[in-house]
Write a structure and sequence with these properties.
Blueprint (H helix, E strand, L loop, with lengths): L2 E7 L6 H16 L3 E7 L6 H6 L5 E4 L5 H11 L4 E4 L15 H5 L4 E3 L14 H19 L11 E4 H7 L10
Parallel strand pairs: 1-2, 1-4, 2-3
Antiparallel strand pairs: 4-6, 5-6
The protein binds guanosine-5'-diphosphate and magnesium ion.
Amino acid sequence: MKLSIVIPCLNEEVTIKRAVQTAYLSAKQLLKNNFEIIVADNGSTDGSLQKLSKIKHIRLIHVLVKGYGAALHFGILSAKYPYALFADADLSYDFSETGKFLPKIDKNFDLILGSRIQGNIEKGAMPFLHRFLGTPVLTFLIRLIYGIKTTDCNSGMRAVKRSFYRQLHMKNSGMEWA
Ligand SMILES: Nc1nc2c(ncn2[C@@H]2O[C@H](COP(=O)(O)OP(=O)(O)O)[C@@H](O)[C@H]2O)c(=O)[nH]1
Ligand SMILES: [Mg+2]
């Protein structure tokens, strides 16, 4: 199995190094050399780019279109392996959980959604209203309307089959991309 890990980055000088390191160590253990890490920088103006220039084992791309969706879109399109796994650069998701996605990738699913509900949510990590109102209600509606069996429609850690992603013709550049 071969995997591209895509990390969107906008002004994450404090966390970007650890995010990349965690992703690298996890992927190395699971996949040997069969992975790549792409950081899709979205015009960072803090020290992120300086930090990134010192990190080995990554491919840095500069996404000129602003927005979370655009950063991931161009990151995923520039990936070279059949699946792209992505999560934020601010350590709000734990790349050492990458292994949990692999059995599903093995089964050839189009889209694999992480779930904070089935996993672990650290104290204070999710605002009260998001955790107990917004995400559950939206998740319920998505399950009802689209029949997608997600338990967490807003998780930012996901994997997508790239051939499937290309068929979606995504055009959203902001958070609505998710
Ligand atoms: N908000 C935002 N995040 C971006 C953008 N481009 C890249 N990112 C990265 O996307 C990830 C998610 O952003 P964040 O603001 O933490 O989203 P939230 O956790 O859903 O509130 C982080 O790694 C950001 O650095 C952008 O234009 N806007
Ligand atoms: Mg965040």
